[in-house]
Amino acid sequence: MGRAGTGTGGEAVAAVVAGPLLLLLLLARPPPASARDSGKSEVGLVSEHFSQAPQKLSFYSWYGSARLFRFRVPPDTVLLRWLLQVSREGGTACTDAEITVHFRSGAPPVINPLGTSFPDDTSVQPSFQVRVPLSAALLSNASVNVSHPAPGDWFVAAHLPPSSQKIELKGLAPTCAYVFQPDLLVTRVVEISIMEPDVPLPHTLLSHPSYLKVFVPDYTRELLLELRDCVSSGSLGCPVRLTVGPVTLPSNFQKVLTCTSAPWPCRLLLPSPPWDRWLQVTAESLVGPLGTVTFSAVAALTACRPQSVTVRPLLQSSQNQSFNASTGLPSLSP
């Protein structure tokens, strides 16, 4: 399965699920302009940086208390990393705080800071979240890594803990401001092999991964990936690991296949793959830095097109009939 790593200065950040309250903020507005820097990181890969303006956080009392950010992840991205920065402005009397940050692909996250619940029989996917503490230091940083992320819109929502609802006189209570800014670093593939259905694609794996993709058209019922004629220079069998599909937090459509033992050929069957999109396949050698692995990759698609449906008349007789809605009785038509 795909991995979503988190960290704050080397320490692990606990990831817990949230609950209801769909954030429908800012959907009508386009995402803010992103600062973008790109450069070669290694052969076939490009690194890019996206940044957005910081926003002040509020103690949570309703859905408008959350701050929502939208990022656009480019196609063929194999790794993304969010850099989360929280700062506090004010005197020493400002209280310590713990900022909660939610992540979701394709739509704003579903959160539940107040502990409410949806009505019965409501299906809700909670968001993936991390918590960033802000105590004695005026600045705190954290990071979240996602390998093989789905391309398209990703949403980040941040807020402070629930409001205490206390009434405070202006000028007597300390003035504190908590500022949150997320940056996005992505690693994108620029050299990728296209797999054509039922056409063997010869491939040689070295120490670094290789990236392939196959297009899944509409009405595809099954996708079968197969490795044939595998030969390894450093070990027996076929020491190859395939990672297929994207990560879409909080859930994902991703499968991992390790082809180190029989039966041969090594196969991975994906029922009901996502339609009308490219499916990314990452091949990694398990033989070591000095060995090579050669194989042929084949993708086979099974389609199931909808058949035409014939609607039969509700009332049939030797003569055509029409239904009179006012009287509730069938009336003869010429």
> Radius of gyration, rounded?
27 Å
Number of strands: 26
Number of domains: 2
Proportion of residues in β-strands: over 45%
Oligomeric grouping of the chains: single chain
The average pLDDT value, as a whole number, equals 78
Which regions are unreliable across 5 or more consecutive residues at pLDDT < 50?
Answer: 8-41, 313-334
Could you please describe the fold and organization of this structure?
- The model is unreliable at 8-41 and 313-334 (pLDDT under 50).
- The radius of gyration is 27 Å and the shape is elongated.
- It starts with a strand and ends with a strand.
- The protein folds into two domains: 4-189; 193-303, Sandwich (Jelly Rolls), CATH 2.60.120.380.
- Strands 1, 3, 4, 5, 8, 11 and 13 form a seven-stranded antiparallel β-sheet that branches. Strands 2, 6, 7, 9, 10 and 12 form a six-stranded mixed β-sheet that branches. A five-stranded mixed β-sheet has the order 14-16-23-18-21, with no helix packed on it.
- The chain is built from no helices and 26 strands.
- Strand 19 and strand 20 form a beta hairpin.
- It has strands at residues 4-7, 15-17, 35-42, 45-51, 55-56, 59-60, 67-73, 77-89, 97-105, 128-134, 139-147, 152-162, 177-189, 193-194, 201-205, 210-216, 220-232, 240-244, 247-248, 251-252, 255-258, 266-271, 277-285, 293-303, 321-324, 329-332.
